[in-house]
Amino acid sequence: KKYKGRFINMTVNTEKKITLLVAEDNEVNMMLTLHMLRRLVPDANILEASNGNQVLEWLTKETPDLILLDLEMPALDGVATAREIRKNENPSEKCVPIVALTARTMKFEKEQCFDAGMNAFIAKPVRVEQLKQILNQFLPSSEVENHDASVDTPLEEDLKKHFDREQMLLTVSQDMDWFKELLETFLEKFPEQMADLRNSIRKTDQKEIRRLSHSIKGLALNMGMQELSDIAKRLEHRSGDPQKAPLIFEDLEKEWVTVRSLLEKEK
User: Fold this and answer.
1) SS3 of 39, please?
2) CA pair distance 265, 183, nearest whole angstrom
3) Fewer Cβ atoms within 10 Å of its own Cβ: the N or the C terminal residue of the chain?
């Protein structure tokens, strides 16, 4: 069931800037989301948080018109954060809309979001048109820019599954400077995630293996790396299997070598 707060009939004072609060612990995912939001709502004031505690801290100083909340965050996850927000809201004021951002797709997981007080759900990888629809639902339509989502000629299928360059360009609205900056950041940061995952597998830390592989799954989808995401998903599901997990991680490392070679060519 969806949370039915008073935000449904809310009207935003268009004389002040729209304020958006985005919570995402992965730097590359945050960069992608911010880029899309700045294209769609160029005049918005955008607040950034990397965990639920930072979200709650922002809410003591600011009153956002919309919160985009990743579910898989350290310290305080998205579901717990949404519960805290709803618990602390002033009953005499309008409720801020909360939209979940997640790679989770199961029905019970969506219900968990709604039960925590969230109002909508965006499945990762987040696409521009999907985000635009949500913004139009909760913000005045005059605040949201039109966006052309025309598709260029795709790469050959054998390369596309490793890195869908054209889909990635669509995500960044054909902005080549931003495209290259994202790839450079990914090339710099992703090896750190792989190293952390490798250490977790050595320690047979099931909880950490599941968390890190879930994070990689969503990140890879956002970056147009379907095969990398699929392997991470397999690892997430086998996180508690001490025999299978190391073998799947080997597949992940091999796929990363392929992806890295494609990204290096973009420099």
Assistant:
1) helix
2) 11
3) N
Render pLDDT for 170-185 as a digit per residue (tens, 0 to 9): 888 888 998 999 999 9
CA angle at 211 for the pair 210 and 217, rounded to the nearest 5°: 85
Q: Which residues pair with 68 in a beta bridge?
A: 22, 99
Q: Is the peptide bond before 242 cis (omega within 30 degrees of 0)?
A: no
Tokens for 111, please give them: 């219900």
Work out the angle at residue 152's Cα, subtended by the Cα atoms of residues 149 and 154, and round it to the nearest 5 degrees: 125
Burial 41-79 (b: 16+ CB within 10 A, else e): beebebbebbbbebbeebbeeeebbbbbbbbbbeebbbb
Percentage of the chain lying above the pLDDT 90 cut: 56
Own/partner long-range contacts of 212-215 (Cβ < 8 Å, ≥24 apart): 213/239, 214/72, 214/103, 215/25, 215/26, 215/72
Q: Show Cβ contacts of residue 99 under 8 Å, excluding neighbours closer than 6 positions.
A: 66, 67, 68, 69, 118, 119, 120, 121, 122, 134, 138
CB-count exposure of residue 160 (10 Å: 0-12, 13-18, 19+): middle
Using pLDDT thresholds of 50, 70 and 90, give the confidence band for residue 125.
Answer: confident
Using alpha carbons, select from 168, 145, 144 the residue that is nearest to residue 155: 168
Phi, psi of 19 (to 5 degrees): -115, 125
- The DSSP-derived string for 154-212 is PPPHHHHTT--HHHHHHHTTT-HHHHHHHHHHHHHHHHHHHHHHHHHHHTT-HHHHHHH
Q: Are 129 and 149 in contact (CB under 8 A)?
A: yes
Among positive and negative, which fits the CA dihedral 18, 48, 80, 92? Answer: negative
Highest mean pLDDT among 54-68, 122-136, 162-176: 54-68
Distance CA 209, CA 206 (A): 5
